[in-house]
C-alpha cells in the first residue's frame, strides 16, 4: 500500500521543473519524502536494516525537521562495491548497473527495477533538456566507435555515451580505432551541420588528451564556436598533469573556439541525480536530488564556503537503498537560490577526492556475519 | 519494402526475434530491450527513415505499437 503510494508521490514529484523551486520548499518536500524512503528500505532490504540497527537508526519520524538532516545517516557508496544491496525481489531486477566509479577499483553494483530505472531516466532527461533544450543536436563524440561494440558488457564509458545520445542525433565518433583524432572526419561532420548547434560529448581526460593535444600539436583550429561541450568522468588524471579547469577551458577555446563548456558530476549509485555546471561554472543540484557537505572532522553539516565530504540524497532510489549516500568526493557549497544563472536551489564546486575513503564502522556490521575479528 | 516492413525488420534484427513476437513488445519488460538497446534502436530507426526524433519521443517510445505512432508523427506513413 505505502509502496504504491510512495511511487505515485515520486511520479508527481517528477512532473515538476528541476530548477525553479526555492530551497525552503524543497527542504519541506525532502523532509517528508526521505523518512518514507528510509522506512521503505528498512522493510525491504535486510542489509540496510542491519546497518541502521547497528547505528541505532531504526526510527525516523514521519516528517523530519530540516535540522534533522544532520542525524540522517548516509550509507557510504563503497558499500555498493562490496555488497549487492537490493530492496526488490530478485525477479523484479531488470538490470544491474555496474560502474567502476573510481579508477581501477571494484565496480559498484546497483540493482534497478523497471520503475526506478524509469524514474532515473526521466529525471536525467528533465535536467539535461533544461540545459540543452528538447531538440536533439548533431552529436560529436570524443571517443571511438568500437567502444559500443561487444554488447554483453557495456563499460561505464559506453554507458555514458549511449545514455547521453538521447540528447544528440547523427552521432559522429571523432577518434579512429587507434584512438587518434580523425580531423578530416570531424571537419566533414562540421561542414555537414554548418549553422546548427552541435553537442560535443566525451570524457574529460580523453578530451584533453585526444582533442586538445592533437589539435595543438598539429596546429589545427576547429570551429566549434556553435557547440556545447558536456564532459565528465573526473579530473584525477588531469590533476596529475597539473591541468586546471581554467587551463582546460582556455585550451579548448584556443584549439576549437569552444565557449560553452559544462562539466557534469554524478555516480552510478544515484544516476537520476546528475549535477551540471551552469554558464558560471557552478554545479547545480536539481529538485530531484539534494547535496550536503559534511565537516571532515565532526561530520556536522558545513556552512556555505566550508569544504566537506559530499552527501547526496534522492527520493528516486526505490529498488536499492541509494536514497542517502556518502560519496568519496569533497566539495564546497557556494550558495543557495542565488546563482546568477537563475537556477534555484543549491550550487557548489568540487574540490577533490577523499584520500583513503574508508568509513570505519560500517564494515563492522558485516564483520558480524563474515570476518569476525577484523576491524 | 513498405515502411511497416522496414520498421519490423529493424526490430527483428535488433532483438533477433520473429515477426510474431513483435506485437505487445515492451521497453524494459523484454530483457533485450534495455536502455542501451533502446538508444541503439532509436538511432537505427532514425537512420532507416532519415528522421531526427526529439528527446521526449525517445522517452515516450515504450512499446512496439507506440513506436509506430511516433514514426507517423515524423511523417513516416505506416
Structure description:
The complex is a heterodimer of chains A (375) and B (78). Chain A is an alpha/beta fold and 375 residues long. Chain A has two domains: 2-75 and 288-367, no CATH class; 135-265, Rossmann fold, CATH 3.40.50. Chain A is built from eleven helices and 14 strands. Chain A has helices at residues 2-13, 23-44, 46-54, 79-82, 114-132, 156-164, 183-192, 204-218, 236-240, 245-256, 362-367; strands spanning 75-76, 93-99, 108-113, 137-144, 168-175, 198-203, 227-232, 260-265, 275-277, 283-284, 290-294, 307-313, 324-336, 346-353. In chain A, strands 1, 4, 5, 6, 7, 8, 9, 10, 11, 12, 13 and 14 form a twelve-stranded mixed β-sheet that branches. Chain A has a two-stranded antiparallel ribbon with strand order 2-3. In chain A, a hairpin with an 8-residue loop joins strand 2 (93-99) and strand 3 (108-113). In chain A, helix 2 crosses helix 3 (46-54) and helix 8 (204-218) crosses helix 10. The longest helix of chain A is centred in the first third of the chain and has 22 residues, at 23-44. The two termini of chain A are 40 Å apart. Chain B has a single domain, classed as Orthogonal Bundle (Non-ribosomal Peptide Synthetase Peptidyl Carrier Protein, Chain A), CATH 1.10.1200. Chain B has helices at 3-15, 35-49, 55-60, 64-73. In chain B, helix 1 packs antiparallel against helix 2. Chain B is mainly alpha-helical and 78 residues long. The longest helix of chain B has 15 residues, at 35-49.
Amino acid at each position: 500500500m505505502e509502496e504504491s503510494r510512495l511511487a505515485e508521490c515520486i511520479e508527481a514529484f517528477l512532473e515538476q521543473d528541476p530548477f525553479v523551486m526555492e530551497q525552503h520548499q524543497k527542504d519541506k518536500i525532502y523532509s517528508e519524502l526521505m523518512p518514507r524512503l528510509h522506512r521503505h528500505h528498512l522493510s525491504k532490504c535486510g542489509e540496510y536494516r542491519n546497518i541502521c540497527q547497528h547505528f541505532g537508526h531504526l526510527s525516523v519520524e514521519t516528517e523530519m525537521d530540516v535540522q534533522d538532516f544532520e542525524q540522517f545517516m548516509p550509507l557510504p557508496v563503497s558499500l555498493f562495491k562490496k555488497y549487492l544491496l537490493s530492496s526488490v525481489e530478485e525477479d523484479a531486477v531488470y538490470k544491474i548497473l555496474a560502474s567502476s566509479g573510481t579508477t581501477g577499483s571494484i565496480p559498484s553494483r546497483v540493482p534497478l527495477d523497471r520503475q526506478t530505472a524509469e524514474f532515473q531516466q526521466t529525471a536525467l532527461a528533465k535536467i539535461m533538456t533544461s540545459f540543452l533544450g528538447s531538440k536533439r543536436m548533431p552529436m560529436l563524440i570524443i571517443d571511438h566507435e568500437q567502444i559500443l561494440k561487444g554488447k554483453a558488457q557495456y563499460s561505464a564509458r559506453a554507458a555514458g555515451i549511449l545514455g547521453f545520445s538521447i540528447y544528440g542525433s547523427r552521432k559522429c565518433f571523432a577518434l579512429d580505432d587507434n584512438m587518434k583524432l580523425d580531423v578530416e572526419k570531424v571537419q566533414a561532420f562540421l561542414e555537414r551541420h554548418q549553422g546548427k548547434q552541435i553537442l560535443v560529448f566525451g570524457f574529460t581526460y580523453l578530451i584533453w588528451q585526444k582533442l586538445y593535444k592533437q589539435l595543438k600539436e598539429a596546429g589545427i583550429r576547429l570551429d566549434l564556436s556553435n557547440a556545447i561541450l558536456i564532459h565528465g568522468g573526473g579530473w584525477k588524471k588531469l590533476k596529475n598533469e597539473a591541468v586546471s579547469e581554467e587551463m582546460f577551458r582556455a585550451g579548448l577555446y584556443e584549439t576549437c573556439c569552444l565557449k560553452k563548456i559544462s562539466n557534469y558530476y554524478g555516480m552510478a549509485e544515484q544516476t537520476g541525480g546528475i549535477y551540471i555546471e551552469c554558464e558560471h561554472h557552478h554545479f547545480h543540484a536539481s529538485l530531484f536530488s539534494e547535496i550536503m557537505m559534511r565537516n571532515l572532522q565532526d561530520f556536522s553539516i558545513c556552512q556555505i564556503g566550508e569544504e566537506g565530504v559530499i552527501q547526496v540524497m534522492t527520493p528516486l532510489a526505490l529498488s536499492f537503498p541509494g536514497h542517502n549516500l556518502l560519496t568519496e568526493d569533497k566539495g564546497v557549497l557556494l550558495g543557495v537560490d542565488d546563482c546568477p544563472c537563475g537556477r534555484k536551489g543549491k550550487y557548489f564546486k568540487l574540490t577533490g577526492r577523499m584520500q583513503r575513503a574508508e568509513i570505519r564502522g560500517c564494515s563492522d556490521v558485516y564483520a558480524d556475519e563474515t570476518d569476525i575479528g577484523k576491524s | 519494402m513498405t515502411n511497416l516492413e522496414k520498421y519490423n525488420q529493424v526490430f527483428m534484427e535488433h532483438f533477433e526475434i520473429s515477426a510474431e513476437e513483435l506485437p505487445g513488445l515492451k521497453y524494459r519488460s523484454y530483457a533485450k530491450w534495455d536502455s542501451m538497446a533502446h538508444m541503439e534502436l532509436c538511432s537505427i530507426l532514425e537512420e532507416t527513415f532519415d528522421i531526427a526524433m526529439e528527446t521526449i519521443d525517445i522517452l515516450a517510445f515504450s512499446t512496439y505499437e507506440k513506436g509506430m505512432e511516433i514514426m507517423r508523427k515524423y511523417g513516416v506513413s505506416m
